[in-house]
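User: Just a sanity check before I run the rest of the batch. Below are the structure tokens for the first item. I only need the designed sequence back.
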């Protein structure tokens, strides 16, 4: 692929009805690549909206999207947790055509910067041990393994 200029922005800055539909479409594509035992059950737009858009713990200012012009190509989601100054990082995913260019690392690094600016001190994430790229990214960004 030729050089691309990728924009990283918080969800809060790009939100619109059109964006939410694009987000749902990409979400449905990318979740199929997350290692899991069974293929995921598709979510309708309404189910998706209830899970993400309406979730009061979803952090619109800290979660990040990556775009190539108007095309949505990746995201990382963060949620408030019950632990003080700690966030939970849920899915990070990048469109297949754009992988291996540091976009996931940049999304996570940008979200960590925003989280620190907002006063958070710890980010927790769950990783499937088969997900070598994500484990490599987390090791590079300084995430520490936990026995849980
Ligand atoms: C995981 C994912 C987000 C990575 O996106 P990406 O933009 O390609 O990631 P980056 O380019 O920032 O970094 C990839 C890193 O993984 C490494 N990597 C890739 N394949 C690897 C493998 N098989 N073994 C070890 N490391 C690997 C790369 O070398 C790179 O690390 P480096 O920069 O230190 O060399 C992407 O593969 C994806 O969307 N997967 C499906 C969704 C998913 O599983 N998300 C995580 C669970 S929520």
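Assistant: Here's the designed sequence for the first item:
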């Amino acid at each position: 692929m030729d050089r691309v200029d990728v924009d990283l922005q918080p969800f809060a800055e790009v939100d619109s009805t059109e964006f939410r539909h694009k987000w749902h479409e990409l979400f449905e594509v990318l979740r199929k690549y997350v290692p899991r035992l069974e293929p995921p059950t598709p979510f309708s737009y309404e189910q998706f909206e209830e899970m993400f858009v309406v979730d009061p713990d979803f952090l619109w200012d800290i979660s990040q999207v990556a775009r190539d012009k108007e095309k949505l190509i990746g995201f990382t989601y963060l949620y408030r947790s019950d632990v003080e100054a700690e966030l939970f990082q849920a899915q990070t995913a990048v469109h297949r055509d754009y992988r291996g260019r540091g976009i996931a690392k940049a999304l996570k690094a940008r979200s960590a910067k925003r989280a620190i600016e907002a006063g958070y001190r710890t980010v927790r994430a769950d990783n499937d041990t088969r997900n070598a790229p994500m484990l490599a990214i987390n090791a590079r960004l300084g995430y520490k393994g936990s026995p849980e």
